[in-house]
Design brief:
The complex is a heterodimer of chains A (116) and B (110). Chain A has strands at 4-7, 10-13, 19-25, 31-37, 43-50, 53-57, 64-70, 73-78, 87-94, 106-107, 111-115. With 116 residues, chain A is mainly β. In chain A, 34% of the residues are buried. In chain B, strands 2, 4, 5, 9, 10 and 11 form a 6-stranded mixed β-sheet that branches. A 5-stranded antiparallel β-sheet of chain B has the order 1-3-8-7-6, with no helix packed on it. Classes of the chains: A mainly beta (116), B mainly beta (110).
């Protein structure tokens, strides 16, 4: 009964390819996120959706496009992959947008993307 | 801007107590959270402090001083399995985005 699940876990692909990562949460949460963790373990938010609506869109290349078909799913599509896109991408969810009440963020196991 | 500063590495021996500090700068503050991440794993929530003082959860405790813009995570009776990265985190001004510190890598030695 994985709370936040994402696929694939590992992805090795060539520069210039297009790839997608899928994410699903079964916690009944309203808010979902994509975080990127680089080789120095720095966790940076990329996008956040609340009830299928985009509420956070960080300074991310427009080659990255999130899609939320419903509030339990948030997918990430990446076009024209570059070497610098190699990282671990974490999907996450919380009951509502993080804020005053210290909303816990639940992370998926991560998708390890390597661009060669 | 908003930032959270924490040491990059801490080393301690099994059975000892270790404190991981976090100082933050933010124009609005809604509380400080701590997450643990083992190598190859996902960050998992440990604790949250909204008010000043100490919150205890088993071997782990977290402290917050809003006047000092400072908090810490205290790990007692260290075990080898506590070797991991620990992140402090806080919502940004407006509260819609959680910002994470750069993480503190804890090495527990026998």
């Amino acid at each position: 009964d994985t709370a936040v699940s994402q696929t694939p876990k590992y992805l090795v692909t060539q520069m210039g390819n297009d790839k997608s990562i899928k994410c699903e949460q079964n916690l009944g949460h309203d808010t979902m996120y994509w975080y990127k963790q680089d080789s120095k373990k720095f966790l940076k938010i990329m996008f956040s959706y609340n009830n299928k609506e985009l509420i956070i869109n960080e300074t991310v290349p427009n080659r990255f496009s999130p899609k939320s078909p419903d509030k339990a799913h948030l997918n990430l599509h990446i076009n024209s992959l570059e070497l610098g896109d190699s990282a671990v991408y974490f999907c996450a969810s919380s009951q509502r947008p993080t804020g005053h009440s210290g909303n816990t963020i639940y992370f998926g196991e991560g998708s390890w993307l390597t661009v060669v | 801007g908003q930032s959270l500063e924490q040491p990059s590495e801490v080393t301690a021996v099994e059975g000892a107590i270790v404190q991981i500090n976090c100082t933050y700068q933010t124009s609005g503050f809604y509380g400080l959270s701590w997450y643990q991440q083992h190598d190859g794993g996902a960050p998992t929530f440990l604790s949250y402090n909204a008010l000043d003082g100490l919150e205890e959860t088993g071997r782990f405790s977290s402290f917050l001083s809003r006047s000092d813009s400072y908090g810490y995570l205290l790990l007692q009776e260290l075990q080898m399995k506590d070797s991991a990265s620990y992140f402090c985190a806080a919502p940004n001004t407006g509260g819609f985005k959680t910002i994470f510190g750069a993480g503190t890598r804890l090495f527990v030695k026998a």
